[in-house]
Amino acid sequence: MIEKFLTRMGDGERVSLTVAxxxxxxxxxxxxxxxxxxxPAMSADEIDQLFAIVTDPNRITGVKPGxxxxxxxxxxxxxxxxxxxxxxxxxxxxxHNAVLAFERLCCADTIGVGHYDYSCKPVKAxxxxxxxxxxxxxxxxxxxxxxxxxxxxxxxxxxDGPFPNATELIPEGKIEEGQRAxxxxxxxxxxxxxxxxxxxxxxxxxGFNFDTCASAGxxxxxxxxxxxxAIKKIAPDMAIEMGMASEFILGMHSEIKYQGKRxxxxxxTEQVKVVEAAGADIFGMAVNVNTSESFPWNxxxxxxxxxxxxEVANIPVHPNVGMGxxxxxxxxxxxxxxxxxxxxxxxxxxxxxxx
Length: 355
What we know:
Blueprint: E1 4-8, E2 14-18, H1 19-37, H2 44-54, H3 78-81, H4 95-104, E3 111-113, H5 120-125, H6 127-140, E4 145-149, H7 166-169, H8 175-201, E5 207-213, H9 218-234, E6 239-244, E7 257-258, E8 261-262, H10 268-278, E9 282-284, H11 295-312, H12 336-348
Helix pairs in contact: 1-11, 2-12, 8-9, 9-10, 10-11, 11-12
């Protein structure tokens, strides 16, 4: 009888794969990342190490003592009080108690807080309320408290925002109009991000987390980089983490540049260099999961991208390990077997500085 190991697909489905099938998927995911990112593939020894992690017979695994890393998060306490559609567990408690539980029960190294919507645009109108919340939480906690928000350039376009919708203009062949709309929206987004960060810094904000950067493409990324550059001058003691939306920057504008570097088409090894140049302190790399491929395929791909990124980075790299990124299946509540294997592989093989 051929030995099989329980694992999952990228959508979370439980499957059993043979040794040969797992090794084939590990090699294929490794090579896919190397080809797309034009980066070195993992060595045969690293593939063997990854195979051992994937086929660990225990349901939960972990790093060896001494290999532990720091964790950051984008709105961790939200998951305690939000309901299942948002990936939470919907406990009947207030946000303040959720923050304390995240620190004292979950033993978080840092805590990410933010508005429930988690987008920059609505936060501006509520900034006094958010300042009060942040100050209240910071007085009751010991670990560093990061305020998180998603730049989310998309909500600056009509019908949600004031600017013409680039996704409607470009398909109509109005390329220059679409580019101009993105540039104008990016300018407004940059101003809002700076304003929010400055206001929070006034009440002693420890850190600011740009979550899901470039979700609306290269103009979104550009606005975030410009905001970081300005914030580090206004609030030099406030740490900044930039978490990405994808391993690939979509060229919605296609020609926009930051410090002479064209942003469209950048992979993590290039992304981290412009994030460094802007002045950010932590780079949150993201590698999207292909739900049609297996967990071993997706994890190998993520580790290959991470390993190459860490080698060129001069700031800490915290790969995003959650729903549909860096090997973890696309599920509202990620399965613990995959989360722990992904975490171990990203730290021990990819050499992540944190998660």
